[in-house]
Structure formats: structure tokens, C-alpha cells
């Protein structure tokens, strides 16, 4: 292991004396995995800005490199290791900090990577600057990971201040108590902790004041928001308060487990023009037997009934989902049942994941692990159904007016954005119109505007 000290060539007092702007150095990020990780990297970036660091892109020189890792699948772990090595190679003189879920669950593996200076899990990230100072002082790699099982409170990180984006991620919750048998997340993120509502609302107001037209609520198990607060707050109540924030144009709910769509929450989605008509409801399998073995608390009938209830109220609701293919013991009949169920659900999008063993989870020790070749074939088949389903959903909107929130404009004057139903739209340059980021525009959706 090596420690790269000396990039910050002067201590902060010397710097203050010599540098008008008191910059402490530069930091860059590489973020893997989900929206929660993205939100957390942005919050960490803000922490560095407040400590007088410049936040630069990962291709620029930096004194500190932060790799925010993922471990949802084994691929997550190996992708994380590759990313860490890549960043060490690209920044041989920087202090390399590894954080996130993979760091939390395998700190030893991370510290064994030559060139890592600090491993910090999914808590205590508010102390990242102090830990970096300690690395510099003690001139040896540090392991700042502590057991997550007893983590008690939601960790407040600084408010976001990222100018370039259109959608802001608002993290409202951390951890999960459900322990689905395939999932490493409860071990990586610890128990359910909800953010205090006043803190979440204050951050949302600030984001709107900063000009973000859209906020995406993120968390690990967002549907259970408030359960641990014991003060009467739940997700529906938080959503009702959020949509009242003047100037907020869109509020997008991220993943919510099927059994957590309470009548109150459904009413919030139905009755507000601000809440996007888009829900992500993880299904995971189209076989009841597999759902039981996964420890998922619903049946296919429950899921179907919920879809009917939601679509009765919002016929064009975009419903997206996740499916794990090749869970231990999954038979050909289970797989066919999943294909049929997915066809019947008319999803607007399906994320297909091949099952991958996570050591320490019950399913890793289940017999009848499905061979890779069979899993790959099933993934292919399900992805074909998913593609058809998504195309059929999008076709309904062709020729109709849709609202697009522009997220980026390219050098030729074309723009990319999403509709409230989360359809990605590519707008070509138009003579009389100049697209700008964060602009909400009405267009008639054409086939040509869809992702190619
Ligand atoms: S609900 Fe299940 S899949 Fe989702 S984070 Fe919790 S344990 Fe993992």
C-alpha cells in the first residue's frame, strides 16, 4: 500500500496567506451504481467545495480522487475494483478515497488494492475531509468503515449546489429492514433511517430557488419513509408538502415497493400535476414460488391488482420495474411465467438483472444455482420482451403533444430531455428556436425524436 502525500503542498494557513481564494486543492469523483450514489457524490462534492476544494472532472488533475462504489451485484464489486484501479493509474499522485456500498461491505478487499489511501463506507461521510487530513498527517492508509447494523440516524450531508443539472436528487431516506434473500443492501446500508421532514423540505426549497425545475426523491426504501420517525410523517405526507413548494415543476418518485402504494400515496400521485405520472415498482420475478424464496412480501395477484388500481386512475401511467433472472431454483416454467407476466403488465421499461450471488446473503447458499449459460439465454429472452413492451408504451404518445424538460443542448443546437412519463426525447436544432437547459417545452412527439 502506498500513501501519496504532498499534493497539497502547503498547509491551509500558508495557502491562505498566498492564495487569495484559499483553494485547498482539487477533487474529482467517479460514481458507480444507483441514483442514491449520484446524490451522495453530489453532496460530498458540496462538502469539498465548502472546505475550499475545486471540484473538477475525473479527467483533470486532482489532489483527491473519490470513487463512490456499488455492490448490488458481483459485477458491481468487480466494476468497482476496476474503477478504483483505473483511477489510481490515472491519478498516481492523488489521495484515493473509496466510499459507498462496496467499500462498506468489503473494506479489506479495498485496502488491499495498492494505491488506496482511505476507505470510508456508507456512514460518517460528513467527516471525509477530517479523514483525508488524517491520511496526510499519519502518512498511511486508513480504514474508516464501522459496522452499519446499529446506524441510528439519517446522516445529513450538505445541500446540493450543482449548477449544470436539470434534475436534482433529493435523498430522503437511507437503509432497509426487509432483507430480501438476494440483496446485500441491508448489510451495506444498514437499517431504515428517514431524513427529518423539515430538513428534506428545506433542501427541496433551496433546490427550487436555485432553479431546478425537477426533483427526484431518492432513497433505498423510500416507500417506508417516516416509519422510524414515529411522528406521523410518511411518504404521502412528505409528497403533499413538497408539491406545494412554489416554483417546483416536477416531482418524480423513484423506486417504491409494490406493497407501499397506500391509498393516500396513490391519491397524491393522481391529484397532483407536479408529481410525474411515472412509478418504478420492482417486481423481481413473475413466479409466486420464486417471490416467496426471495422474501418478497406480495404475490403476482397483488401486483396485478395494484397495476389495475393505478391505471384506473391514471390510464397512461408509466410503470417501470426490475426483474432478477436466474434466481436459485428458477425453472424453465418460472421463467416462462415471468415472460408472460411481463408481457401482460405493459411496462414502460424493465431493468433486467441476471441473478448474481452476494456472499453473506441467504440466497448465495441456496442449492440449484442456475448455470450462467441458461441465465444469459433467459436474460436475452426477457430483454426482447422488455424492448417490445417499452416500444409499445412509447408508441401511444407519437403524434400527441408532450412536455419536455430540456436537460442538455449539444454543440449543433439539438437538445435532449424527458417527458413527465420519462420518455427520452431528442429534439433537433430548429431555425427559429434556441433550446436551453432547464427549459420546459411543448412539442408534438415524432418517431424521429426517440432514442435511436
Ligand atoms: S427491499 Fe429488498 S431489494 Fe430493496 S433494498 Fe431492501 S432488501 Fe434490497
Automatic annotation (TrEMBL):
Q: Which reaction does it catalyse?
A: N(6)-L-threonylcarbamoyladenosine(37) in tRNA + (sulfur carrier)-SH + AH2 + 2 S-adenosyl-L-methionine = 2-methylsulfanyl-N(6)-L-threonylcarbamoyladenosine(37) in tRNA + (sulfur carrier)-H + 5'-deoxyadenosine + L-methionine + A + S-adenosyl-L-homocysteine + 2 H(+)
Q: Where is the MTTase N-terminal domain?
A: 25-137
> Which keywords describe this protein according to UniProt?
4Fe-4S, Cytoplasm, Iron, Iron-sulfur, Metal-binding, S-adenosyl-L-methionine, Transferase, tRNA processing
**This enzyme's EC code(s):** 2.8.4.5
Gene Ontology CC: cytosol
Family annotation (InterPro entries): Elp3/MiaA/NifB-like_rSAM (IPR006638), Methylthiotransferase (IPR005839), Methylthiotransferase_CS (IPR020612), Methylthiotransferase_N (IPR013848), Methylthiotransferase_N_sf (IPR038135), MiaB-like_bact (IPR006467), Ribosomal_uS12_MeSTrfase_RimO (IPR005840), rSAM (IPR007197)
Asked if the record carries the keyword 4Fe-4S, the reply is yes
One MF term in GO for this entry?
metal ion binding
Record-annotated Radical SAM core domain positions: 162-395
Cofactor(s) named in the record: [4Fe-4S] cluster
Q: Does the keyword Zinc apply?
A: no
Superkingdom: Bacteria
Role summary: Catalyzes the methylthiolation of N6-threonylcarbamoyladenosine (t(6)A), leading to the formation of 2-methylthio-N6-threonylcarbamoyladenosine (ms(2)t(6)A) at position 37 in tRNAs that read codons beginning with adenine.
Name the protein family. Answer: Belongs to the methylthiotransferase family. MtaB subfamily.
Full protein name? Threonylcarbamoyladenosine tRNA methylthiotransferase MtaB
- According to its UniProt entry, this protein's organism is Desulfosporosinus acidiphilus (strain DSM 22704 / JCM 16185 / SJ4)
